[in-house]
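Quick question, first post here. What does this chain look like in 3D?
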Amino acid sequence: MLHSDSHLPSLARCALFLSLLLGFGACTQQATKPRYTIGFSQCTNGDAWRQAMLAGMKKELSFYPEVNFRIKDAKYSSALQEQQIKEFLREGIDLLIVSANESEPVTPIVEEAYNRGIPVVILDRRTTSKLYTAYVGGNNVEVGQTAGNYVAGLLGQRGQVLEVLGAPGSSPATDRHQGFVQALAAYPQLQLVAQVNSNWERPSVLERLPAVLRAHPEVDLIFAHNDRIALGAYQVCKQLRLANRVRIVGVDGMPGPHGGIQLVQDGILKATLLYPPGGEEAIRMAMRILRKQPYDKENILGTMVIDSTNVQTMKLQTEKLASQQQDIQRQQQLLRRQRATYASQQTVLYVLAAALLGAAVLGLIAFRAFRANRRSNRKLELQNQEILSQRNQIQEFAEQAKVETEAKLRFFTNFSHELRTPLTLILGPVEEMLTSNPDLPATHRHDLGLIRRNAQRLLQLVNQLMDFRKIDVGKMPVRATEGNLVAFVREIMDVFEKPARQRGISLRFLPSEPVIRLWFDVNILDKVFFNLLSNALKFTPDRGQITVSIQLVPAENGVRVSVEDTGRGISEQDRAHIFEWFYQGQQSAARGSGMGLALALGLTRLHLGQLTFTSQPGQGSTFIVTLPLELPPALKLLDAAPQATPAFALEEGIAPAATAGEPAAYGSSEALVLVIEDNPDVNAFLTQKLQPHFQVSSAFDGATGLRLAAESIPDLIVCDVMLPELSGLEVVAQLKGDWRTSHIPVVLLTARNAPEQQVEGVQAGADLYLTKPFNPTFLLESLRTLLANRDKMREHFRRELSVDTVTVAPQRIDQKFLADLTAIVEANLGRSDLSVEDVARSLGISRVQLYRKVKAVLGTGVTDFIQGIRLTKARQLLLDDELNIAEVAYQLGFSSPSYFSTSFKARYQVSPSEFRALHTTPSA
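> Answer (accepted):
Ran it through. Tokens below.
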């Protein structure tokens, strides 16, 4: 009992000491955390963007419980805002945050606060003076410039733009307009045709914009200074039935069901520019200033474009951030409750300081609260790190998606090249039967013509992928010629008559006039109308109706071509995406590539026209192409002459074949042609077409082709570019680098039709570059022309072997060969037994190779060449009186003087003695 009582004073003293210690610690902690008063003068709190700014401030202030935050709302009144700032100065504040309604009216009172030594943070809207402590906000000039550059890219650097400005005199409206105009100045074909002022709210746009749009119906895009007035612009466009054509770009990019991000996702806005409210940043800046920490005077918040490419990502990110913020708020509420509990227990501890048990309980509660606080802070840090990690992952996913998309496009482009080879085997025989058989029955000729036209259409479909790439990189030129649009559209419709008739579909053509002449690009509009008609035929049910009408529209200075069907129509969810690349529709039963309508839209805009549509579910759709009657001179092909070349030949650069009345340039069944083609069908097709006119040998790879070329020395080589292991370009380079085969003309065949690829083939040494599919008759005539040109070259080399010299300057590989050959013969002129085998052995080739090389270059045999060198040398020796005719004969390797005399006279029509008498002067 005595032992127990002895501990009671000790416990009481411990409890009292603990109470005093906790009280001293609380007082010390309270003394070490000074309290601050921050005043915030806001121009208005009535819009969502300002409310987001205030919400950001309150979120950040939750981390600073020692701050007393006061806000005064000026409600768009500059005079009231000036009065409220004066009230702040009278009440006494440690720091002032100002978001000005108008710059000039509040500048003097802001300067007064700064001169009193009160730190001033300017938020969003600047004042006209530099007397402030720090600025936090976006660069409105940069926002305008970013919007201008985005609009230029969206409209292809041409079009007409309307700008809806904010309140007149406000610095954001002035700066955004300035940046927008600066950006548009770099694009001469982008015109800012009109401006509309607003008070930053939607009703002012609904009141003022309709009259301006009616005065400028040609507007392609509206740039609004915030998302609220952008929504008003959309409602006006919808009212005037311009919503499907006019695109709208806003500013703010706020999250939430009514924010700019949702408007972009819903397709109401084409894009919005992120303009951060800056509430959190303003509070952070204020605390750095109050705590005497380093800070920057100018703090510019970044901006970015939010459109269909990243709106889903931004929405997911903002929703994730909102969810994380809710978690943070719940943790903070828990923390505040725990702090309140801690304060309550601390009060009880002060009252019951003598009670050791109460002190121990309060100590335990305090310890638990401290641990919970640490856990909350640690959890917040982990959540912040997770947000940063997720943001980085989103960026990586976006980059990966971009790389994968590009890889898919490259795959489809390469695949389209491969399709040209089987098309060659279809179009080649069909073209041959149509051109070489005049007695073909009319029905067969009609069916073959139908096969040829549809094969050509298939080739055009294959080219759609390349057209997509050309439009994407801006390499699709417009080459317009003047023609009859009615006849042009009628010709395209002929392709669809038979399939329409088979399904009982009525195909009607209703031109308003029999002839409508205008400038248009045949290649571009052929793809546009073919895709629209193909789409109509695909979705029109059996026994339905397709109507194509052409109508002049003088009021718009254009022509309107409409394609109307009686199909199922286009659903509401598909209408916003119908012109997107690779979009196939949600309810489409007939799945296609998803490229037809997107390609048609891109080509129509390239032709300075418009493609629109109307549709009613269950009743059908109507696609309308509007073309201008006049095109700029830069788009007109003024020197183009009309040609009756097939469509596929025009696309591939193939000229028409020679007519029956024109003589062939060259032809000989003795000429040897080597075909190098790895595709067995194409190889057999080429061999079959060339055998009636030439001797033909073939190889299926580059290495075998090079070996056969060196062994047989053919007169001409036809080679494919895409060969296994050794490409056609490498084969050409090796052929032209070898003196044995350097003289042989080479024709390259390929499915690669890009201009830079053709230049690459010619630079490698090819004499002719043909793209698949090719016209067989054109190929045959080209081979004959190349052989005729080789004949002319032989005459050139023979003329170089003149009377005065027996050598040839080694300027080219063939000339070097002749120089080496001449040198060997000259070195052995005295040998009467000099044979062709001896000369071939000296050159390191076979007798057959030497014969074919000399025959190909000079058109003569090796023996005749040696004889010519001897006789040319004899003319020089006969001018020397010291040698008699017999000595000249033996010195040049003739077996006898009589044979020498006979050969000389046969060559020059005079005997050696007569030649000497004619060219020497008798002595005195």
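Residues 480-636 form a domain with the Heat Shock Protein 90 fold (CATH 3.30.565.10).
Confidence is low (pLDDT under 50) at residues 1-12, 27-31, 640-668, 801-811.
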